[in-house]
Amino acid sequence: MTARTHGFTGRHMLFVTSAFFAVVIGVNVTMAWLASSSWSGLVVENTYVASQEFNKKAAAIKALAATGISGSISMSHGVFHYNLRNRDGSPAAADIVVANFKRPVGDHEDFNISLEKAGEGSFTTSRHVPSGDWIVELISRRGDAVVMHEAVRFDTAGFGQ
């Protein structure tokens, strides 16, 4: 009786080719899912212009940070609160605060609102903020001068909504 050797057959080639494409497709699907679930991205009108303005904006934010004024946000019972404080914890003086609410992805739910002054350094709005992730850009002014300009990313679930 002689030993029979089959060698590399068409079935082997089919298996190798199928395994190769299964790995490629599996990696692509995994990477696409990870990319869409972990990076929110940002929506800008023109990425080139945004990149050119970055250094100017970063310098302005550093100058504002040097003043020692800081802001904090909170939500309770559907009311959004923003508090401005000086370095020593006392309320910071501001006349108006404009809040630009933006979704991290897409702009169909974005809205802008002027917060109502509830006391020195304290501002609120009773406008409902839908649940989920938000980036709120807060611009505080006293007269024509910008007192504070910051952006805060938050999830309404973090506030017990």
UniProtKB/TrEMBL annotation:
It comes from the Bacteria. Keywords: Membrane, Transmembrane, Transmembrane helix. The chain crosses the membrane at residues 12-35. InterPro entries: FixH (IPR008620), FixH_proteobacterial (IPR018037). Pfam families: FixH (PF05751). This is Cation transporter. It comes from Rhizobium altiplani.
